[in-house]
Amino acid sequence: MRHLINWLLSALAVWVVARLYPSQFVVRGIKAALIAALVIGLINATLGAFLKIITLPLTVLTLGIFWLVINALMLEVASAILSPAFHVNSFVGAFWGAIILSLVNMLFRWMAGTNRRDA
């Protein structure tokens, strides 16, 4: 049940980011936000995890900032897969969108109480 709630919260976060950053993030409806959240999650769990392991030394040297670049790349990959329903206009848009998406998603999960590991 918690996975379903997290998926819905992630979709809501994608939709909110598209409304906060409309010049760079395009989401065509709630169905597109749901699918985008699922694809972003799958890409982050597979390719994103692999890239984070491979680039760990660079991430340590940049004090974790390089992970923002990886998250932006994952948004670009999701955009390429889901275009035109979900589209990011540029890498800079993906970079700032990844930051905003992370913060909004963290806020929603905190508000819903799904970020706790004890459940």
Offer a concise description of the structure.
The protein has 119 residues and is mainly α. It has helices at 2-20, 30-54, 56-61, 66-82, 91-112; strands at 25-27, 86-88. The chain has one domain (2-112).
Which labels suit this protein?
5 helices, 119 residues, mainly alpha, single chain, two-stranded antiparallel ribbon, 5% strand, globular
Shape: globular
Total E-strand runs: 2
Helix-and-strand structural type: mainly alpha
Tally the helices: what do you get? 5
Helix content percent band: over 70%
Account of the 3D structure:
With 119 residues, the chain is mainly α. The chain has one domain (2-112). Helices cover 75% and strands 5% of the residues. The chain contains five helices and two strands, in the order H-E-H-H-H-E-H. It has helices at 2-20, 30-54, 56-61, 66-82, 91-112, and strands at 25-27, 86-88. A two-stranded antiparallel ribbon has the order 1-2. Helix 1 packs across helix 2 (30-54), helix 1 crosses helix 5 and helix 2 crosses helix 4. The longest helix is centred in the middle third of the chain and has 25 residues, at 30-54. The chain starts with a helix and ends in a 7-residue tail after the last helix. The relative contact order is 0.18. The mean pLDDT is 91.
